[in-house]
Design a protein that fits this description.
It contains five helices and three strands. By secondary structure, the chain is mainly alpha-helical.
Length: 184
């Protein structure tokens, strides 16, 4: 997360270092993907208000930007092709690319879905406080400040916002489940 703070050259140097150390890694930016989700939700709310004749009074500007989001791959072969080599060095991975990578990683490591959880693949989010765990979860869930009805986990500048273990489902990825916990 937060790889938007780095240039592609810096991401390349980190990639080489992490690869030399034998660490699986990829580059993602919750900030960039959250902006895309917020823009899309804002536009949807604006169109909905216009269709029922209401004035849309939200004054937040909408930035139109091309999204690189594509539908999720459905087969292991498609996922392997999509994931091979692209770990976000040139541009940080999109939300869908990150979800594909997560599933690819689980398949590569022979992780199995759990029947106790409707055969969903479980992914845990652990780490130090204030590294963006909750921000990544909100992006993966597809939550925006302009949408209602989606679970949104708390994000705060001070450490310790996440107080307890929680599980979250992804509406557009029915075979995945996220598990969030307080920072270590």
């Amino acid at each position: 997360n937060k790889s938007d703070f780095l240039s592609s050259k810096q991401r390349q140097v980190w990639h080489e270092y992490l690869e030399k150390e034998g660490w699986d890694h990829l580059f993602f930016s919750a900030h960039i993907e959250q902006k895309k989700l917020d823009d899309a939700a804002y536009e949807a709310r604006r169109k909905e208000a216009a269709s029922i004749g209401n004035a849309f009074s939200d004054t937040e500007p909408l930035e139109h930007r091309e999204t690189q989001n594509t539908p999720m791959s459905t087969t292991a072969e498609e996922r392997e092709a999509l994931c091979s080599g692209n770990i976000g060095i040139e541009t940080p991975l999109t939300r869908y690319q990150l979800m594909d990578w997560m599933l690819h990683f689980a398949e590569k490591n022979k992780c199995k879905p759990d029947a106790r959880f409707q055969d969903k693949m479980q992914f845990g989010m652990v780490g130090f406080p204030n590294v963006g765990k909750s921000s990544v979860i909100n992006v993966l869930v597809g939550s925006s400040k302009h949408t209602h009805g989606l679970v949104r986990v708390g994000v705060a500048a001070q450490p310790g916002k996440t107080k307890h273990f929680q599980t979250l489902l992804l509406d557009d990825q029915p075979n995945m489940m996220l598990c969030d916990c307080p920072g270590l």
